[in-house]
Inverse folding.
């Protein structure tokens, strides 16, 4: 809830209208990508880099969708298509944990977790942030202008579950800054984000036991265990 | 009230939806090579770090020249990083970072 609220505040301070901020939370429904868009839009950058980064930031959902697919094969096509829209880190972790506890797939349980547990609270929190953000004069006086980069940095820390992630992030930052100075932020951020992982891949694996954080709630979720659990379901 | 960014939100949905939906709607399509899956796992932290570092450090002056400019923003972002790494709570990290920058600005620093 708190993170959605902060998104609403940041979006409002970046000049989004209430309708635009809510459209982000309803349609895009992806915390990190939404925050990235706030920064890009406020910097007046073109939409193409935003869409490229959104694609790569959210590509991990492929893994969650693939984990759930075998158990949901019997669900009607249109319902599966709708279920996909609300599939986030947190929704996946909730569903996988619930399915594992029951020992079977539970479609109503998926909807309750994904919609009542994540989608609605995220959107209500965004709405509250938008409402309050519009009433704060000079938000930078209160440090609210650093919400965006701080959220990006915090989310990156949340995804660092091993040595390779740390190396990818460190090089992503260094290359991103260097390329931004030479080529401009619109290109530099994309270059850093796409080259950093190649250097991370060159490192030997050193995964720890730290769980990644959801990009919607900002709280740790045990995605690796959830994926292993859901794969064992009948 | 502006609605221009509603189109951007829909486009963001359009580029996100395939990752969420393709394996559910066409099982088997997600069978990517392990190296590709590893790359996708590492893109998230790299992109986020690239955005955070660039937004915090790089400034463009009135002549359009870009350079690294140290500001109090860096302290706020670093504090947020430390709190998130320590407490595993993003909201708490954001509150701490914003509060530090607010205090420093009220004190006339930055």
């Amino acid at each position: 809830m708190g993170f959605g609220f902060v998104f609403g505040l940041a979006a409002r301070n970046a000049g989004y209208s209430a309708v635009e901020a809510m459209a982000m939370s309803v349609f895009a429904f992806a915390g990190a990508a939404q925050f990235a868009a706030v920064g890009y839009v406020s910097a007046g950058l073109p939409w193409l880099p935003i869409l490229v980064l959104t694609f790569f930031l959210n590509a991990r959902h492929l893994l969650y969708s693939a984990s759930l697919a075998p158990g949901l094969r019997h669900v009607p096509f249109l319902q599966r298509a709708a279920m996909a829209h609300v599939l986030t880190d947190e929704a996946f972790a909730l569903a996988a944990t619930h399915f594992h506890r029951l020992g079977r797939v539970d479609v109503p349980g998926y909807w309750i977790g994904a919609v009542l547990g994540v989608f609605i609270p995220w959107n209500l929190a965004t709405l509250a942030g938008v409402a309050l953000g519009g009433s704060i004069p000079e938000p930078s006086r209160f440090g609210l202008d650093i919400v965006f980069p701080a959220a990006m940095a915090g989310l990156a820390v949340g995804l660092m579950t091993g040595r390779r992630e740390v190396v990818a992030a460190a090089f992503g930052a260094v290359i991103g800054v260097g390329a931004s100075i030479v080529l401009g932020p619109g290109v530099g951020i994309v270059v850093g984000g796409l080259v950093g992982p190649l250097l991370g891949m060159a490192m030997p694996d050193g995964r720890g036991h730290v769980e990644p954080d959801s990009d919607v709630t900002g709280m740790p979720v045990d995605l690796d265990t959830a994926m292993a659990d859901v794969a064992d379901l009948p | 009230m502006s609605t221009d960014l509603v189109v951007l939100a829909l486009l963001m949905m359009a580029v996100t939806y395939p990752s969420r939906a393709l394996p559910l709607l066409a099982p088997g399509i997600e069978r990517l090579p392990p190296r590709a899956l590893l790359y996708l796992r590492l893109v998230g932290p790299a992109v986020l770090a690239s955005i955070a570092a660039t937004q915090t450090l790089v400034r463009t002056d009135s002549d359009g020249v870009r350079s690294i400019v140290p500001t109090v923003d860096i302290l706020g972002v670093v504090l947020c990083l430390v709190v998130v790494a320590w407490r595993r709570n993003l909201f708490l990290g954001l509150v701490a970072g914003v509060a530090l920058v607010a205090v420093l600005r009220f004190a006339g620093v930055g």
About this structure: Chain A touches chain B through 107 residues (CB under 8 Å). Chain A has twelve helices and no strands. Chain A has a mean pLDDT of 85.
